[in-house]
User: Fold Amidase from Kocuria coralli.
Amino acid sequence: MHALGAVETLRSFRARELSPVEVLDALLDRIHADDGAALGGRAMDGEGSANAVNAVVQVLEGSRAEALDAERRYARGEYDETLGRGSSALLGLPVATKEKHGIAGETLSQGFFELRDDRAPADHPVIERIRAAGGIVHARTASPEFSCATVTHSKLWGVTRNPWNRELSPGGSSGGAGAALAAGFTPLATASDIAGSTRIPAAFCGVVGYKAPYGRIPGLPPLSADWYRGDGPMARSVADTALLTNVLSGIHPVDHGTVPGHGPLPTEYGDAAQWLVGRRIALAVRLGDYPVHPDVERAVRETTARLVAAGAVVEEFELPWTSAAVRDLTMGHFGHILAPAMRQLTEDMTEVAAYTQRFIDDASTAGRSMSLVDTLAGEARLQADLAAAMAGYDALLAPVNAVDGLRADGDYLDGLEATGPAGGPVRLEHYWQGHMTVPFNVSNRCPVLSVPVGFAGNGLPVGLQIVGHPYAEESVFRAGAAIEAIQPWPLVAA
Assistant:
């Protein structure tokens, strides 16, 4: 049962082939056996087992009572006739949520050891919507401090490891979410993305992650006003990701940046590959000069060859970007918004991770070197470049990560030793240059879906970004479903 998808599980509940209690118990057993998490509702503390995935930081003790209630509702036929709609859209489905998505009365540390006893005053909007749709929050997942790294480890929760290769990281910052999905601890998970924090772990863990257009999924003020950011879903299939996207999306009174959409995304795709026939798709393997690892490039090119064989027209080009310029521009942005917020939060702390302090220092330095108006001008140029490149195409494809993986316990404070396209070593000044995600946070009205497209030699999956035109959400899901149909991926790590 741990490998079942969300839509498949909902159908089984309706047919009375499975019960919510059976599914929840199977997932809790798997968490207990492979993760090292306590099952009594206690947050984890310390390093944990060196062999554990260490993705789950808390199991919610009330989840079984919720599963029993859902079981009774199914027995009474108390669910919407249309699957995935209304108050029964997720009825009885377990959902793992990123710890930063606060639950009223539960701890809310955001990975900081010194905030381990803080409590959330209210449910985060995504928690509120999951519960209103009948979903069961059974587990909470790890992230680095303040979600500010592309690896997932902290003094509070220890090192989160990739189920595909436990010496390597699931990525970050939603690394616990990606690892939990890949390990079969949950069919659905919540994540967040301000520079790639959903797509990076989705790619490294071989699952699907969605960065919705800015404003489609509500966040919490004041930082929800940062136009780079967004909360969102992760799952193991395109349909399951669409299911959770539908539940989370829409105007919310807490977040005045939320916007309406064009209706629910489909959760059934029929002859998905047929969508590809005649579609014009742009391919940007390096987004300028990102040093893409040969294994990553190979997986991306093999997938695009299958798209062409299925009837799509794929044309390759390069954008006039450099990873260093993108780094400087986006760090400048964070120097005016995120770094001051982090400095304010941590100013009285005596123990802060080295990667957290490095992020604050780097972003603050970049913010002093350019005004907010300068960063806006740079963002406008990048957005114009992307719009020109995508003109006449249905979607743009690019790798998620330029690198094939990161060490599970790595800090990468002194940059990153990468492998270039020719197989030789490449030195990157900042580890952010190993990920090709943040340009699409700058162009944050564009929907971006990350899907698996193969494996690197180290055993980690490779992810592909599908970028759509502003707010054209269905297009990236159609493209993702087509790739899933012509090139199915494993559901969980072996």
Summary: Confidence is low (pLDDT under 50) at residues 38-47. Residues 6-486 form a domain with the Amidase signature (AS) enzymes fold (CATH 3.90.1300.10).
